[in-house]
Amino acid sequence: MLQLRDAVEGAPDPDGAAALLVPAEADVPFSPPGDSLPPRRTLRPLSVRNPTRGGRLKEYFVFRPGTIEQAVNEIRVVVMPTEDGEVQSVWLLTEVDHWNNEKERLVLITDWSLLICKYDFISLQCQQVTRISLSAVDTISVGEFEFPPKSLNKREGTGIRIQWDKQSRASFINRWNPWSTNVPYATFMEHPMANADEKIASLCQLESFKTQLIQAVKKAHKECPLPGKANGVLVLERPLLIETYVGLMSFINNEAKLGYSMTRGKIGF
């Protein structure tokens, strides 16, 4: 606050009367003699719960009560006992395709097969199953995601890549076809809400999935070796290369979570 004050007495004022603008002194509240000022209060940090993660959890149909249990029971129908054997474990993971698109998947480890299931958690129907013989798996790689230096759409984090038929890369045509499913490997990472629900968290742990997968593959190589092929699986720790450069399609897909069964406004898909 500014207030007017007369010029200092005795000082020459050639222009006549003048006034100065000076800051006003702060008003000090009256306190009776003997009373001391109250002690300063200490500000303590508040523990504020971020509702964003809990709110996002409800948008995923898989985390609605009873959904995952029903899906696990129904997904067992796709298992062929003569070809796959018994189901050993069921996992909820995110598949990352060769164009860096995220896709919600149910993954089954059986005695002799790895089943990757595209499951619609809205209509509770299995839409597609990819069956991989565990005896054909030759390399399991674990590591950070890696992209070409000039790639515009990158991701961070750790994943696991499963390769089969002694092929490390897809053909040129399949590699540059974003809709191609003829790729000799599958790459997985943890579901984005893996640790948000304690009841389902055990189905989403990538480290546990890796351990059980390696055990199942080694067992399958020993009990059901493929004729004419060298048996054994190579387990490596190395970067997982995803050869995308512009990545506009995967950017839109991943930002909008189009690969997950979610509510989107008044509709869900």
Keywords, separated by commas or semicolons:
single chain, 269 residues, alpha+beta, 9-stranded mixed sheet, two-stranded antiparallel ribbon, 6 helices, 19% helix, globular, disordered N terminus
Question: Structural class of the secondary structure composition?
Answer: alpha+beta
Helix content: 10-25%
SSE order, one letter for each helix or strand: EEHHHEEEEEEHEHEEHEE
Radius of gyration: 32 Å
Any idea what the shape is? globular
Q: Say what oligomer this is.
A: single chain
Distance between the termini: 60 Å
The parts where pLDDT drops under 50 for at least 5 residues are 1-22, 43-51
Counted by DSSP, the helix tally is: 6
Which strand-content bin applies to the residues?
Answer: 25-35%
Q: How many β-strands, per DSSP?
A: 13
Give the mean pLDDT.
80
Q: Main β-sheet: number of strands, strand sense, barrel status?
A: 9 strands, mixed
Structure description:
This protein is α+β, with helices and mostly antiparallel strands and 269 residues long. Helices cover 19% and strands 29% of the residues. It contains six helices and 13 strands. The strands form three sheets. Strands 3, 4, 5, 6, 7, 8, 9, 10 and 11 form a nine-stranded mixed sheet that branches. β3 and β4 form a beta hairpin. The protein is globular. The relative contact order is 0.17.
Fold blueprint:
Blueprint: E1 2-6, E2 19-23, H1 51-57, H2 67-75, H3 81-84, E3 87-96, E4 102-110, E5 113-120, E6 125-133, E7 137-146, E8 158-164, H4 172-175, E9 185-190, H5 206-223, E10 234-237, E11 240-241, H6 248-255, E12 263-264, E13 267-268
Parallel strand pairs: 7-10, 7-11
Antiparallel strand pairs: 1-2, 3-4, 3-9, 4-5, 5-6, 7-8, 8-9, 12-13
